[in-house]
Amino acid sequence: MTSAGPQGPRHRLGIALLLALATALPALATPAQTPPHRAKPKPQAEAKTPAKAQAKRGKTPPVPAAKPTARADRPARPASPVLPMRPAAGAEARLIEVYRLFGRGQSREALAAAQKLVADQPNFQLAQLVYGDLLAARLPPARRPSQMRPDADPQALGELADESRRRLQALRERPPAGTVPSAFVELAPSIRHAIAVDTSRSRLYLLENGPQGLQLKADYYISVGKSGIGKQAEGDARTPLGIYHVTSNLDPKTLRDFYGIGALPINYPNPYDVRRGRTGSGIWLHGTPRTQYARAPLSTDGCVVLANNDLQELIRRAQIGATPVVVAQNLQWTAPAQLQGDKQAFDKTLAQWLDARAQGDTARLQKFHAPDFRRIGNKKTIDSAQGITEDIRAANGQHLLLKDVSYLRWNGEDNTMVSSFGEVAAGQRTGRQRRQYWIRQGVEWRILQEEVSGS
Length: 455
Hints:
- This protein is an alpha+beta fold.
- It folds into 3 domains: 15-33 and 48-67 and 80-172, no CATH class; 180-334, Beta Barrel (L,D-transpeptidase catalytic domain-like), CATH 2.40.440.10; 337-453, Nuclear Transport Factor 2, Chain: A.
- It has 11 helices and 19 strands.
- The strands form 5 sheets. It has a 7-stranded mixed beta sheet with strand order 2-16-17-18-19-14-15. It has a 5-stranded mixed beta sheet with strand order 5-4-3-12-7, sandwiched between helices. Strands 8-9-11 form a 3-stranded mixed beta sheet.
- Residues 1-11 and 27-88 have low confidence and may be disordered.
């Protein structure tokens, strides 16, 4: 195939790219089916891969990336600290299997698998493109199309190629085993799931919070703003970065088909966004229309978009008002033990704040408030002085107990922490629920805004 020039990619994904993607997989056997120790395979007839078939005909095939092999005179490499390539789910898993089959030289089986995939998912555009490439691969080189079709959209084809690369990248570059996104310093047991988005990989990670702490449950391909990330203003077609929470679950009957099977809005702009002068609204996690299985990596007006079947999993697990959503350019994964220092330091900050309330110390409490502090609750907004008076009255000289404490940290333009908890006076069964947005100023933590509910 010949290139379409600097204005666009090849007329299809391209046989060379398809082969490169297939050989880029770390192993051609499905990881879930690969035992940790395998018996030495018996010698068998050498399979004719597409590259070897070309060599037999006197053509020089592209040289694939070298694969590491075990040798007696070469010391074994230490085990990788990262998780093996995760078997993808659903239609994505079937597409990856097409790549695997093609990479093994099983082009006939790859074609059959692709044909079945597009029959089951006719709106999966990337699968349709791969299927077309596999059909073209069966033609003699002289008969393969050499020009881009007149009605082909170079931008759309480039986006599909990018989608393919990003899906494989996210499945190859797994988070280190036993780690969590560093934003999740502490998550209350009552919060059953958390969501983290890595925009550089076009990937959303669903984490489950159980007796052993946070663990990666699943991950999905996603699309973000057509203008990229770092939302600043209404209509800039960018996806915001920061810490958010799911605020509602919209009834799909009230939505246009454009949003797919449903939508989970998040609380953009949060208080940090407002402090930075960011505007806009209506940032959702939502699905795709019936005519489209997935969207290009950069294609939304700022929302995070998933395939409908993937979104369904989020909808089933989301807790309205509680499920955190961290959206980052690059997620930083760390061992939970490494977050204990942050947790313990902030425990002390909250303990000092509670002590000042119990002592009725107005001056000390004032030091915990940012100059532009606001409290929102019970359909009213109050300033720092009113908030301090209210807190001292509610404490009534008692040390309050905290329950269901969560800490979410964000190191962006401001060093910030979102703390959520319930507070109960001794002898009481219920009390207030708070979400506090803290900002670090110098060596001190100060509350920028509080959201308070309950008596």
